[in-house]
Amino acid sequence: MNATEPRRRWWPRSVRARAALAAASAAAVILAGTGWWVHHDVYRRSTQIAEDQAKAQLWPLCDQLREGVVPDTTSTVPYEVVATGRQGAVAYGGGMADFDPDTHHVMPAPSRAQQVELITTVRLPANPHYNPSDKLSVSGGTHQVVTCDIRADDLTTAKAAALGVAADADLRVYALVLPNTADAITRTTDLLLLQAGLVGLVLIAAVTYFAVRTALRPVEAIRALTASVTASDPRERVTVPAATGHEITALATTLNTTLQRLDNAAAQQRRFVADAAHELRSPLTTLLASLEVALAYPERTDWPAAVTTAARQTRRLHALAEDLLLLARLDTRAPATAPDTVDLTALAARLTEQYPLTERPLTLTCDSSAPAYAHGDPDAYERLLRNLIDNAVRHAAHRVQITIRNESAWVVLTVHDDGPGVPTEDAERVFERFVRLDDARSRDHGGAGLGLAIARDLAHRHRGTLTLAPRTLGACFALRVPRAPAPDGE
């Protein structure tokens, strides 16, 4: 066999064949156990029937002997009557003639008289004239016998003389329990069980195969349809079966939900690419136009102004590229599990003091009564707070206030501005990427619409939330992150 060739397995690959084989195997185990139980029960009952036949023959023989009558040799059950002090059998029949009991009785003579019924076993001698076709032959082997003893006191002298025994002789009657009866019935039953079991296994396997085949038809239809779905065009949907509560219905519903998420993700990706291209095109167009004009009319160009414009647009491109790279990293990396402990109060106070407010007069304040510790990455928290402050400063009219509070197991940080606020219907849309509610405003001052999206992603990475709190004046963004214990020594 080639080393690269996969090994052939006896276990079939088809689900239909596997189900049929599994059902047939389970049925075989059940049928085998049932057959074993039936075999032993039939043998036990058949043996009991044979014993009852022997007993039915025994008691009439005893009655005849007590009347002094020698029983007839014709009998359906082999029997023999022996007596003490007598070498040959008193009477015999039912196939015992093969042993010639007239010469010497086959069964052992009684040692004492008992008027009770006994079931015991005896070993019969082998008969050289044994005919295997004779079902009544009991030559050789150990057999069960049913016995009954007749005491000498039960017989008168005349009855004893009629039977050919001494007046003080004790008699014992033996009736053989034919083993052929139980064996024949058991063999017949076993053959019927085997035939019925084989036919049943074939029917179970066939019914299971076709039942699974019918049940898997919707799955095959789902597979054929989903094979045509691509990441760029995931608009196909699976037909949901009408039967409620069916596994195929749950599969189809789940697959449609997955396809819908894939469709939404593809649409979001296309929208993201289009928005990113649009955002990049604006500063590139301004930069290219400024440079082309400067190159076309170098003697009339205000070079400091041109360089200033180029630098501003380059910084804008750099900031946009950094935001896009950060979003890409946030989409691919696992949630942050940094062991650092960050004091959000100290961080917010430092950003408040260092934040440049040169374009227009604004008041930026930080209100906190105690340190507020949280686990996470200090740089990520700084980027998150800076984005919230940038957004508030961009929209505020006169004032921006940062508040930090410890609330039970959470640290709650809010950034509140006195600007125009956010409509209630846009409370969630404002966190989407490239979404700006002030489209009429200049893009140079309005940003790219990525700050709040980055801030929410960073909050989720630290197992927190970022929401827009309802306010009658301005906008208030609330950050909630799990509270951490104070570092040692503080």
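(the above was protein one; protein two follows)
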Amino acid sequence: MARSDPHLTAAETKGLRAARELEGHVKWLESFTPAALGVLAVASGIYTYLGVSSLLEDTGAMSFFAAVAYSVAVSVGIFVFWSYMMRLLPAMRTASGLVGLVLSTIIGSFAIIAMSSWLNAAALAGSAAVEQHLENTVRDYQGGLERAHEIALSGQALGREVERARQTFEALADQERSGDLSGAAGEGAVFRVLTQKTEELSNLEQQIAAQSPLITAAFEEGNRILGRMRELTVAPGPVDQRSVLFAEESVRLAGVIASLNQYSVATLVTRAAQDLPASVVLPELDGRNSDVRAAQSSTIASVLSALDQRSQTLKRAADEVLALEPPAETVYNPISSADAVIRYAGNFVPSWAGAIAIDLLPAILVFVLAITQAAIRSGRDGISVEETLTLSDLKAALNAMRDVETTMAAADADLDRRSDPGRSAPLAPSSDKAAE
């Protein structure tokens, strides 16, 4: 409500001057704000087009028009939405209306992010995100290869346990040959039992040793494939084409890792350890007398007990290898640039920030304009219209009054002419005077 006192206080005068200054700035800014908003909307639409194009598998005319239509819709939507907010939100005076428009702005911002910003991020950092996916896949494959190689080498270490067992039975056989074991020198029943187990362990040891060059070759081949995959990760050229070659190499590497898993001899050692005491073929006792045969029987029983103990030792060692956590199964899944940007969003924060900023920067302008309009209204509150008139406003008002008065005078004269035609028409000269 305007006050009745025609004089302004110093504070009111200062506030009025500030309001007029802000109004001048706002009028100047509004002269190019729509153009700037249009440029932002078009830029967002262009990056949206690039993001949509990366999602469409078909490269035909229909896909092109679909991408163009979507990007144009995004540009128009962004321009119209922020134009509404810039006009309506700063002019809102009621608290309920202001809260409603702020909520609408927030919801609209989320909608813009959902339909545009993530595609903008895909256009800005899509190739880099796919390369990040390739790099992470290489790291996973490397971990799987090294783990499979480690398990295979642990299996090879069982060869030393087998070797120790073989050497033990070989030493016992030598003792039996010299008569230091059963007391009967020669190659009798006890010697044949020991020789039988020594040969079994020797065959197992040879099988384990035969796996060693295969493991080494597989590991070297896996490292070569990993090297090619790393080169494809950072190589120049379109990332889509590199992804195809990367997938082929990943299939080869998966086969190498599977081979390394099969080269582990832990399962073989476990079965051999179980068969070691169970597969003894007891020969006929060939002692010269009952005392020798009794000594042979007792020695064979001791040998069987030693076989059982050695079998348990080998089985425990093999079980420890089998208990090792196998390598995680790694499978390369091709990924689009848009999906890669979302999956590795934490690695591309600047790109996400730029993609969102280009869409939501007008929100800052909306709130700046709202604050400015609130300051203008605050500077004019409580001041009558007459007190806010400037000299230019007074001159414009006087000119308008003169135009109104001129128009009204012309209208009155026209009305008089229509009501009394005789007064407006000039008198014609008489016929007599004309004759004179």
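Reviewer note on protein two: Confidence is low (pLDDT under 50) at residues 1-5, 424-436.
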